[in-house]
Amino acid sequence: MNPITPADQTVAEPRAPEETITASILSAVAEHRLPAGTKLGEQALSDLFSCHRSNVRRALTSLAAQHVIEIRPHRGAFVATPSPREAREVFEARRTVERTLARLAIPHAGAADIAQMRAMIAEEAEARAGGDKPAELRLSRAFHMKIAEIAGNGVLGQFLAELTLRTTLILGLYGDASASSCARDDHGPIVDALEAGEEARLVALVDEHLAHLEAGLDFERGASRPMTLAEQLSPGTGI
Amino acid sequence: MNPITPADQTVAEPRAPEETITASILSAVAEHRLPAGTKLGEQALSDLFSCHRSNVRRALTSLAAQHVIEIRPHRGAFVATPSPREAREVFEARRTVERTLARLAIPHAGAADIAQMRAMIAEEAEARAGGDKPAELRLSRAFHMKIAEIAGNGVLGQFLAELTLRTTLILGLYGDASASSCARDDHGPIVDALEAGEEARLVALVDEHLAHLEAGLDFERGASRPMTLAEQLSPGTGI
DNA sequence: TCGCCATTTATTGTCGACAATCACTGTTAA
DNA sequence: TTAACAGTGATTGTCGACAATAAATGGCGA
Predict the structure, then answer these.
(1) One domain, residues A32 and A53
(2) Which residues form the HTH gntR-type domain (chains A, B) (predicted)?
(3) Considering only Cβ atoms within 10 Å of each terminal Cβ, which end of chain A, N or C, has fewer?
């Protein structure tokens, strides 16, 4: 029922409660289980994760600093709802960051990396075929983060993690639900170019991939989405 | 005595206490008044800003999310001490971000912007001549942030704000104190290229500027700096 | 004299309660 | 019927106190 699950802490590894909370919220947002605008009540979270409210507050302030949620004073925390302008800025930033990461990845990409990426693409295609949206989103994001991992720049990697998450929110708001985001297999050719070490082609493909993603946005639709319960219950076609 | 001053809140504008704290710490770090590794005790801060510890904690978690400070559990908050590897990553990220910002700034740079930047350069030179290190650091940072402002991309601007702050920490750790960071007037030609709208030259100059900054680092010196009182009291040239 | 260990002290983490603020419900009046 | 209003409930913000942990001190023994 609740889209946030306490990130199964099997037995060992008793991480700090705040980390569990942030990780759970991040993955929930990354898989469209928490749509933009959702309220994140403190007591609800402290109940769900059975910890004190102070831990929840720490997690929320940390997430707010990463622009994943927005805290309005005396109002509460809400999943961020990027504006059209912010959406464009995020895509511009992604192009900038991913271009560099792709270039940096070329000399570090080993055979194992390439194989793993191909496996991820296959898994993603399978999830898409099976209609498993959350898995598809998760794997698509993991693909981009894998490039960052290969590139070996943690600072840019962190930026990309933030940007891909915000991209997921943007797609949820303005994305075309039918024509899926990464429907076309854009990732396959990217791996090919990375394996071949063809920098110019790789950068062009990454650019094209992101441009295609951005081109699929429709800012008219999401603009007037109040995210009230009425919206969620009446499946009308708008107004 | 204390390098953190409560950011004079004249009369009106009663901002939230957490914002005052974060702003004060950020500016203190940006002006080398708070060296890397400095402990930021909760009670000390709550005393200084005359607010409750909960506000201090919020400010500290927010700063930790921006990698400006580091929170070690049960140990406290410390001004971040970037490793040599992190330093290289930060510079790589800066090159990536600033290249794009410079390019984006070209079509938006008005005459007023150019004039303001020239004024900032003059002020910076004056501060350098007068030996006012904090002012020099502040103005140099402001110059780079001005380009981001002209570019008009808030997301990349926020990234740059974070990166420039981390750069300041890096310079404090590994920078050459004598040969100042931006000693040469690198900023002047950048404004010229921006005004002329010569993209290739502008990007090259920005790249060169950052490369020069990075080349001045000496990772041997700062590596074994424990930041103990003994170090601060004995002005030896380090074993 | 030096090294190790128990004690003390200071700081962070946690907790529950209360106050301040906001959203919502039901009421009243035009 | 609609709009404005007061009351009510729930949520966030604040506070002080206590517990848990780590650092610093001092004492003990070799």
Answers:
(1) yes
(2) 15-82
(3) N
Q: Is B153 left (phi over 0), alpha (psi -120 to 50) or beta?
A: beta
Same-domain check for residues B72 and B150: no
Domain boundary among A47, A79, A111: A79
Q: Which of A107-121, A131-145, B11-25 has the lowest mean pLDDT?
A: B11-25
| CA A24, A27, A33, A35 torsion-angle sign | positive
Q: Could A154 and B89 be called an inter-chain contact, meaning their C-beta atoms sit closer than 8 Å?
A: yes
Inter-chain CB proximity A62 and B57 less than 8 Å: no
Q: Least CB-CB distance to B155: which of A16, A73, A89?
A: A89
Residue B3: inside a domain, yes or no?
no
Please report residues of B whose CB lies closer than 8 A to that of A154.
86, 89
Q: Which of residues 152-171 of B touch A (CB under 8 A)?
A: 153-156, 159, 163
Whether B41 is covered by a domain: the verdict is yes
Give the whole-number percent of chain B exceeding pLDDT 70. 84
How far apart are alpha carbons A169 and A26 in whole angstroms?
11
CA-wise closest residue to B148 among A63, A95, A161, A93: A93
- Once rounded to an integer, what is the mean pLDDT over residues A154-166? 98
Tens digit of each residue's pLDDT (9 = 90 or more) over A43-71: 999 999 999 999 999 999 999 999 999 99
The helix or strand, by DSSP H or E, that contains position A76, with its residue range, turns out to be strand A76-79
For residue B193, the enclosing domain spans 84-222
Tokens matching residue B137: 């650091």
**In angstroms, rounded to a whole number, what is the distance separating the alpha carbons of residues A62 and A162?**
12
Identify protein residues whose C-beta is within 7 angstroms of any atom in strand D: A 39-43, 53, 57, 71, 73-77; B 16-17, 51-55, 74-75
* B160 within domain boundaries: yes
Cross-strand bridge partners of residue B77: B40, B71
User: Looking at the domain assignment, is residue A7 inside a domain?
Assistant: no
Are B30 and B7 in contact by the 8 Å Cβ rule? The answer is no
Q: How confident is the model at residue A185 (pLDDT cuts 50, 70, 90)?
A: confident
Q: Provide the pLDDT confidence category of residue B177 given band limits of 50, 70 and 90.
A: low
A111 shares a domain with A33: no
Count how many domains chain A has: 2
